[in-house]
């Protein structure tokens, strides 16, 4: 790993580094890693390619990282965002859809199940984290 750069962007503090690594089926990979910090939250952005192709991708990687900004509903046009909830006893996809005001339309319950890798009749165990939208 080379030098770690730090700074701030938008309202986020960040740490950035390039990492050379190897793994099964991926030899000599170069990773462009940035961690954006927002209070107690950290957002990790990893972009990688074969090390020999890195120079050709570095500007794109840099542009993508530079585009990271705090979400604004005004700029986002009210696009639904993923949120995490802890599945409680008695929860169903239908109840979760109702709590989110059917934000994905009349099939919100089915879409929430699919977002979590399940069918409409399946549910995660109590205490497990599930994805929802609002």
Give a concise summary.
With 134 residues, this protein is of the alpha+beta class. It has four helices and six strands.
CA-to-CA gap between the ends?
Answer: 39 Å
| Main pleated sheet | 4 strands, antiparallel
Please, how many domains?
Answer: 2
Average residue pLDDT: 88
Instruction: Give the SSE order as H and E letters.
Output: EEEEHHEHHE
Residues in helix, %: 10-25%
Helix segment count?
A: 4
How much of the sequence is in beta strands?
Answer: 35-45%
Q: Which parts are unreliable, with pLDDT below 50 for 5 consecutive residues or more?
A: none
Number of strands: 6
Shape: elongated
Neighbour order of strands in the largest sheet? 1-2-3-4
Structure notes:
This protein has 134 residues and is of the alpha+beta class. It folds into 2 domains: 5-66, no CATH class; 76-133, LysM domain (Membrane-bound Lytic Murein Transglycosylase D, Chain A, Roll). Helices cover 24% and strands 37% of the residues. Strands 1-2-3-4 form a 4-stranded antiparallel beta sheet, covered by helices on one side. A two-stranded antiparallel ribbon has the order 5-6. Strand 1 (5-9) and strand 2 (12-23) form a beta hairpin. Helix 3 (93-99) crosses helix 4 (108-115). The radius of gyration is 19 Å and the shape is elongated. The two termini are 39 Å apart.
């Amino acid at each position: 790993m080379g030098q770690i750069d730090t700074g701030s962007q938008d309202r986020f503090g960040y740490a950035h580094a390039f990492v050379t690594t190897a793994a099964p089926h991926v030899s000599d990979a170069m990773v462009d890693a940035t961690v954006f910090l927002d209070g107690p939250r950290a957002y990790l952005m990893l972009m990688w390619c074969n090390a020999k192709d890195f120079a050709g991708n570095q500007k794109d990687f840099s542009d993508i990282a530079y585009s990271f900004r705090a979400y604004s509903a005004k700029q986002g046009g009210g696009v639904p965002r993923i949120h995490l909830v802890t599945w409680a006893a008695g929860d169903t996809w239908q109840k979760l859809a109702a709590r989110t005001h059917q934000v994905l339309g009349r099939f919100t319950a089915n879409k929430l199940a699919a977002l979590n890798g399940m069918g409409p009749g399946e549910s995660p165990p109590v205490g497990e984290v599930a994805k929802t939208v609002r």
